[in-house]
Specification:
The protein is α/β, with parallel strands linked by helices. It contains five helices and 19 strands. It is elongated and about 105 Å long.
Length: 308
Amino acid sequence: MVNIEFKFREVGTLDNKRILMGIASIILIGVVIGIIFVNLDIENRPKPSTPELVIGEYFLYYKGVNITWLGSAGFKLKTQDVVIYLDPYQIPVKETDKADIVFGSHGHADHLSASDIKKLTKVNDTILYTPFLVEMENVSTISIEDIVSLPVKEICCIKPGDIRESHGVTLEFVPAYNIDKYRFPGQLWHPPEINWTGVIIDFGDLRVYHAGDTDHIPEMNLISCDIALLPVMGLAMMTAEEAAEAIISLKNSSDLKFAIPMHYTYPFTLSNLGNITIGSLEEATGFSEKANCTTVILKPLYYKDYES
C-alpha cells in the first residue's frame, strides 16, 4: 500500500500583511495614474476665453478694463492691477474699491470733492492728480485747505501737456475749457487760462479719454483714444450736438471704438432749492442719435433717480 501524505502549509500573519500591502500598493498606483491622466485631460481641454467686450447696465468692459459710470462726470476704471477714479462725486460710504489713483479734472466741487475722495482713499497710498490749485472768485468752488489735508500719498499738480506714469498706466493731461459758455457776461465757466484738464489714460492696449468739463475745442483733433467719455448736458459744457461734432474731431486722429455720454444726470443740493437734478436722459439719447460712432448709454451707478 502506498501512503500518500498531503502537507498543507498554513498561511501566517506575516504573509497576510504582505498580500494586503501589495493590494494597497496596486490600488495607490492606480489612483496616482488616474489623477495624472485627469490632470493632463484638464490641462489639455480648451480654456474658456475671457470675452473682450461686455456691456452691462452700469458698465462697459473692454480689453481688460471695467469702466463704471458713477453719475455726473464720475467714473471708476478697474483692472486686475489698478483702481482709478475720475471726478468722483456723491459716492456712498459703502464703496469698497479703494483708489490707487484719483483724477479731479478741475476746481469745481462736483469734480474735485474732498469728502468723496476721502471715502475712496487708501490712507497714505492713493495718488491724486489735479490741475494746479488756484482760487478764483466765481470760478473755483473748492477749498484748497480741504484738498491739501487729504490723507493721500501725494498730490500731483498737473497742467495740459503733462504726462505721468503710475501703477502701470500712463496719464496724459489735455486741455479742457469753454469757448462760448458763460457763467455771466465776460466770465466763462471754465476759462482756458486756468489750465484745467481732461485726461487720457493709456492702459497699453486701451486708451480712455475723460474730457472733463469742456466745449468742443480744437485740441480734440490731436487726441487719440479708443473710448471717449464726453459731457453732453450743455450749460457749462458741450451740448449733445457739440459732443457729436467732437466725435468727428476725435476720429480724425484715432480709431475711436466707443463714446459714453456723461454729465447729464447731475444731482446736487442748493439751500434755496433743495435736491434738484440738471439734465436728463434726453441729452444722452440726442448725442447717441447724432454721433458718428458706437455710443453706449450707461445708467449712473449711484444715482437711482434716473428719469428722462
